[in-house]
Specification:
By secondary structure, this protein is mainly β. The protein has eight domains: about 130 residues, Jelly Rolls, CATH 2.60.120; about 140 residues, Immunoglobulin-like (Sandwich); about 120 residues, Immunoglobulin-like; about 130 residues, Immunoglobulin-like (Sandwich), CATH 2.60.40; about 90 residues, no CATH class; about 120 residues, Sandwich (Immunoglobulin-like), CATH 2.60.40; about 120 residues, Immunoglobulin-like (Sandwich); about 180 residues, Immunoglobulins (Immunoglobulin-like, Sandwich), CATH 2.60.40. It contains five helices and 79 strands. The strands form 18 sheets. Strands 62, 64, 65, 66, 67, 68 and 69 form a seven-stranded antiparallel sheet that branches. The N and C termini lie far apart (about 160 Å).
Length: about 1200
């Protein structure tokens, strides 16, 4: 066959081919020849080859597949036209034979040796295109004579069988595609496509499929829930031959919503499925967002099946997420695969069968229960008592469970749902628990509407964890609900009563005969549901005080319990058994109270009735004794007035004494009438000693506050009642004083009375008075208060502080009425300016007042303080003891040259700035601030202030103006001031001083006009200084002999405008060498200086050519070191510092040495004179350089005029 191609499974991919091109020939038959071995793989070859042969062999070539077995062949050789020149020797793959006697054509079949030689050849060409190796068969021809021959025909037959690999995958894919139907077809035809240009081919093979791998049936959960419980699917598989041939196991779930869940377990390299050293790799390839595989818990094990096969069992452990919404069904496919990915007959199972869903993430309320704090079930609507009452302050326990929709036992985790409690439309949180439970304790019923019904119902607020759910909803429908009645009305116990000849009367405070058993009654009232019983607790002072401490301890009480008609409403009277009091001492008490609850648990005490243990809490206390008379001692009254006043709103105390042998606790009522026993309730207040109750009628205008009792004797008790008089108490101006009265009632009878107690007369103080303490300026510049006045400027703000008192008694307020305010007002021209404020807790006040920004008609204005919003009929007295003065004009300054010409800052001499007398006249109607006048100054140079020269001072008041006069307002200030520049600078010509006043007037107004900072006084500075200095000198003779006296005339001048003196001296600087060769120097006075040390030269202002003569003795030959030394440091004497600063050298003097004692030649004399001259010139040069560039040496002119001084 030629150009054969085969495609298995008809997938368009060639699975096997044998092309004819490139000399490959037909499949199993080769007829193509090549003239050169190098042409193999490049040329297609031909049927014949022409060859030039001689004794040297020539070759042609053919190729056959190495996998083929050559079994026959034929070769044909043809000579040229004149026949073979000689026999041709032929070698086929090394096996030789000859044409023999053939003349023109030689044809020979290949024998077994020749075919065997071909089959023994090794591959000579690798055909990469077809993945085959080929043998290269050489046909070598030679002859003894040269000739041309042609191989005209070649045919090599071979047998070749090839196994085609790699076709299992396309066949398996085709098989898988064709078995997707359910059920799968019984037989499947595998298509094979064969093409060839000529010839035929035989195909043989085998398809092994039957149970080579077994996937056993497996079970899956019918419904998956996101309940946090790990889901498990177990699949089992085995290979027909060896489980090591199983490469992987897969479990795939195809959900009806399109989700694909795919798990995969891959065998280890050792093929032992985890039983060896190589682990099994378990992964998830799809669906991790909705059903993540728990790889750590998934496992593989080998289990022997009942059929004897060892199964590879995979435990697939996976979760289900909340973001997987309800799914109707899931088709699970379990498959084992070999190394080629091939599998057979997967096992299939289904979730979501029956009426269940495969995935369920909706929730619903499963149960709901409500119980009270006693454990009684309140959520039973089938009870005849439903709905039940509950105590508003008692707890209600609410609980229940949720489940997944229609699940029998699948519930969410506590973090995956949230149930709230809907209580009559208000939503409250609850606590989530395990197994879908929720609970809460309702302790907020007391905050709901009292007496109303409350409906309790669960409400699923969140399904699934927040933010990570898809499609999860509450499917509860109408949730269960329970109604309860909030019972906030406690049962009411009426007063304990005793039976008397006049009927039932309150037992409390009664004096009871000890010979009669104490029998008491009580009437209870219940609006909802009565309790089951009521108990009377009693304590007898003599019989039951076990510890003899006189205190009714709760543990010492005895009791009686009687039944009630439980569940009923309304009133019920109970009569307790009589109590034996025959053993009680005189005035011994019996304390009683009652206990019990209604059906909801509300006690009598919660309703404020029933009493409790202890004498002070007793519901009724009876005194066992013989009843004794009551009286009022005449001297036992007191009333704490202030100067005879009772202050409205102020706490006062009324005291009285009562003589009562049975104790004041047995009395029914004590009434105090502050203004006598009149027909109205005004001023009346009452006290019930038996109950300790203090009260007054609404129209009494008195508020009783508290009461205290104190034993004076064994039978006398003092009562002190605190009270306040109302601000609405009517008190007319000029009204007479009030006198109190008292009365005492017992058993409805008046047993004591006292009217018009004159020593307690009083009047009402209901007027306020605001007392100022200070006024403070709040606007810069802030002025201090002067006595009762404060000086301000227009537009200023000030604050007035003070305290509030009662006007009549002068007492401070200890209870400030609501909205009480203090107002400060000022009549500013024709306008009233006012401001008010509240009072502090200590009854002080601070009021800020802002003045108008304009000039008032009268600068002095009173500040009136008034109390406003005084409650009731109270009032206020205005207080105007403080005043303000508004100064609207700025003060002006006068530097009076007529009255004070020397101190009016006209001209200042520069050398006297350290002591300048300054006089300033200030003009201001109100006046300047008390104290010295503050001034400042600064030096000016080139019209600019000199930094560092700023300074200040003060002028004293020497003459105060008369403010009562319209023309003598002026105040005169004068002092001597040191105006020396603060930075120590030298005053130069053109410098000046700016001088101004910084003080303000009493209102803080700054100076305006001349003398203010903006227009300062600028006195002229006259430069006055002493500038005495040396000018020149003239020496005579200039060439003195040894020991000759030289006269030195010095000339001095003073260019300054102030005269002065200079201290000077003439000295010679001498250099000496001691016996040790050490040199030193010293100053030697001149003759004049020795006679007159510290010579003073007086130089008048602007003087010149003042002559001073010095005499000096020449003692050494040569140029002397003469210096004028002046007093530099100004101490009046010449000292070491002056010598060190000496720089005035006297030149032009050269001392001639004495002539030598021996006669010399004239040449020697001339040389000595020349040497002396040279030395003189050098000395003059040295001295001139020492003096400096600014000092000139010049000589006196005969025509020069000068002033001569002799010294």
């Amino acid at each position: 066959a030629s150009d054969v191609e085969i495609d298995f499974a008809d997938d368009g991919n060639l699975d096997w081919s044998f092309p004819n091109e490139l000399s490959r020939g037909h499949y199993a038959w080769q007829t193509k020849l090549l003239g050169s071995q190098s042409d193999i793989g490049y040329l297609d070859g031909s049927k014949s080859v022409v060859m030039q042969i001689d004794s040297t062999p020539s070759s042609a070539f053919a190729i056959v597949p190495s996998s083929g077995s050559v079994n026959d062949g034929i070769i044909s050789i043809v000579s040229d036209s004149d026949g073979f020149e000689s026999p041709v020797d032929i070698s086929i793959a090394g096996a030789s034979f000859s044409t023999g006697s053939a003349s023109h054509r030689f044809t020979s079949e290949m024998n077994q040796y020749q075919t065997a030689a071909i089959n023994s050849l090794t591959p000579g060409w690798a055909d990469t295109a077809t993945d085959r190796d080929w043998r290269v068969v050489e046909f070598s021809l030679s002859s003894s004579q040269a000739q041309t021959v042609t191989i005209t025909g070649l045919a090599i037959g071979y047998t070749m069988f090839e196994n085609v690999s790699g076709i299992s995958v396309p066949i398996a894919d085709y098989h898988d595609t064709m078995t997707q139907d359910d059920p799968a077809p019984v037989e499947i035809a595998i298509p094979v496509t064969i093409s060839s240009s000529t010839g035929s081919i035989s195909i043989a093979g085998e398809l092994v499929y039957d149970y080579i791998m077994t996937n056993r049936e497996f079970q899956v959960p019918n419904t998956l829930y996101p309940d946090g419980v790990i889901n498990e699917i177990e699949t089992a598989h085995h290979h027909l031959n060896d489980n090591s041939l199983l490469h992987a196991i897969e479990l795939t779930g195809s959900a009806s919503d399109g989700q694909i869940i795919a798990f995969r377990a891959e065998n280890g390299n050792d093929g032992l499925w985890g039983q060896g050293t190589d682990p099994v790799t378990i992964t998830q390839t799809s669906g991790s967002s909705v059903a993540p595989l728990n790889i750590s818990q998934s496992s593989v094990e080998i289990i022997t099946h009942s059929d004897g096969y060892d199964d590879v069992v995979v435990n697939w452990m996976f979760d289900v997420n909340w973001n997987w919404d309800d799914v109707e069904s899931i088709r699970w496919v379990s498959t084992a695969l070999d190394e080629y990915g091939e599998f057979v007959w997967p096992s299939v199972s289904f979730s979501g069968e029956g009426n269940s869903k495969a995935v369920e993430n909706d929730l619903q309320i499963e149960s709901f229960e409500v119980r009270d704090e006693y454990g009684r079930l309140l959520s039973n609507p089938f009870s005849t008592f439903y709905p039940y009452p509950v105590k508003s302050s008692n707890d209600i326990n609410v609980s229940g469970t949720v489940r997944f929709q229609d699940a029998s036992d699948a519930r969410p985790q506590s973090t995956d749902f949230l149930v709230g409690l809907n209580m009559s439309g208000a939503l409250y949180s609850m606590t989530m628990g395990q197994n879908g439970s929720f609970e809460t304790t309702v302790d907020w019923l007391i905050s709901t509407s009292l007496g109303s019904e409350v409906t309790l119902s669960p409400l699923i607020l969140t399904v699934g964890p927040s933010g990570s759910t898809v499609g999860a909803v509450d499917t509860s429908g109408t949730p269960p609900q329970t109604t309860v009645i909030i019972d906030s009305s406690a049962p009411v116990a009426g007063p304990l009563q005793v039976n008397t000849p006049s009927g039932l009367q309150d037992a409390h405070g009664k004096v009871w005969d000890p010979t009669v058993p104490l029998s008491v009654y009580v009437t209870i009232d219940e609006s909802e549901a009565r309790g089951e019983s009521i108990t009377l607790k009693y304590w007898r002072g003599t019989s039951d005080d076990a510890n003899a401490d006189g205190i009714a301890d709760e543990t010492e009480y005895l009791s009686q319990t009687l039944p009630l008609s439980s569940g009923m409403t309304g009133q019920q009277q109970v009569n307790f058994i009589g109590i034996d009091v025959s053993a009680q001492d005189f005035n011994s008490p019996v304390h009683m109270y009652v206990e019990g609850t209604d059906w909801a648990g509300l006690t009598y005490q919660e309703g404020g009735t029933g009493g409790s243990a202890g004498a002070s809490n007793s519901w009724a206390s009876v005194i066992v004794a013989t009843d004794e008379p009551t009286s009022i001692p005449a001297s036992g009254y007191s009333l704490n007035t202030e100067l005879g006043y009772l202050m409205a709103g102020h706490r006062h105390t009324f005291s009285m004494q009562i003589d009562e042998p049975n104790g004041v606790g047995t009395l029914d009522n004590v009434t105090i009438m502050l203004c006598g026993d009149g027909p109205t309730n005004v001023g009346k207040m009452s006290y019930d000693p038996s109950r300790g109750v203090l009260w007054a009628a609404p129209d009494s205008m008195v508020t009783p506050l508290s009461v205290q009792s104190q034993s004076v004797t064994s039978v006398v008790t003092e009562l002190s009642i605190d009270f306040k008089i109302s601000w609405d108490y009517v008190w007319e101006e000029g009204q007479s004083s009030c006198k109190p009265s008292v009365s005492i009632l017992d058993d409805l009878n008046t047993v004591a009375y006292q009217n018009n107690i004159g020593e307690l007369s009083w009047q009402l103080d209901n007027q306020f008075l605001a007392i100022p303490d200070s006024m403070t300026d709040l606007t810069s510049p802030m002025m201090d208060q002067v006595e009762n006045q404060l000086f301000l400027r227009q537009g200023d703000e000030f604050i007035v502080t003070g305290s509030l008192l009662y006007a009549g008694s002068g007492m401070p307020i200890n209870s400030i009425p609501d909205n009480l305010r203090v107002e400060a007002s000022v009549i500013y021209g024709s306008q009233e300016i006012s401001s008010d404020t509240e009072l502090a807790e200590d009854s002080t006040f601070s009021i800020i007042v802002t003045l108008p920004d304009r000039v008032p008609l009268d600068p002095t204005m009173a500040v009136s303080l008034t109390v406003i919003n005084v409650p009731g009929l109270g009032g206020s007295t205005a207080n105007s003891e403080y005043s303000i003065v508004v100064d609207s004009r700025s003060p002006t300054a006068l530097f009076d040259q007529l009255k004070y010409p020397e101190s009016s800052l006209t001209i200042i001499e520069s050398d006297m700035v350290d002591d300048v007398q300054v006089t300033v006249t200030m003009n201001d109607q109100i006046g300047m601030q008390d104290g010295p006048l503050q001034v400042s100054w600064v030096y000016m140079r080139q019209n600019s202030p000199v930094t560092g020269t700023e300074d200040s001072g003060e002028l004293l008041l020497i003459l105060e103006g008369d403010r009562s006069s319209s023309s003598e307002w002026s105040d005169v200030y004068q002092s001597r001031i040191d105006l020396t520049p603060a930075n120590g600078m030298l005053i130069e010509a053109g410098d000046s001083i700016s001088f101004w006043i910084t003080s303000t007037d009493k209102a803080g107004n700054e100076v305006s006009g001349l003398g203010s900072e903006s227009v300062p006084r600028a006195p002229a500075l006259r430069i006055m200084e002493f500038l005495g200095e040396y000018v020149r000198s003239v020496s005579s003779p200039s060439a003195p002999l040894m020991n000759e006296i030289v006269t030195i005339e010095t000339f001095w001048e003073n260019t300054g405008k102030r005269g002065g003196t200079l201290v000077v001296g003439l000295y010679e600087l001498i250099y000496e060498v001691d016996e040790n060769g050490q040199s030193s120097e010293r100053w030697k006075e001149s003759l004049t200086t020795a006679q007159t040390p510290n010579l003073e030269i007086s130089l008048e202002a602007e003087s010149t050519s003042v002559r001073v003569t010095f005499r000096w003795e020449a003692t050494s030959p040569g140029q002397p070191n003469l210096y004028i030394v002046t007093d530099i440091d100004g101490d009046g004497a010449i000292g070491e510092a002056d010598f060190n600063a000496a720089d005035i050298a006297i030149g032009g003097v050269s001392v001639v040495p004495p002539p030598p004692t021996d006669e010399g030649s004239s040449d020697s004399a001339i040389m000595m004179i020349g040497a002396i001259a040279l030395i003189a010139v050098a000395a003059i040069g040295f001295l001139m350089s020492r003096r400096g560039n600014d000092d000139d040496v010049y000589y006196d002119d005969d025509d020069y005029e000068y002033e001569e001084e002799e010294y």
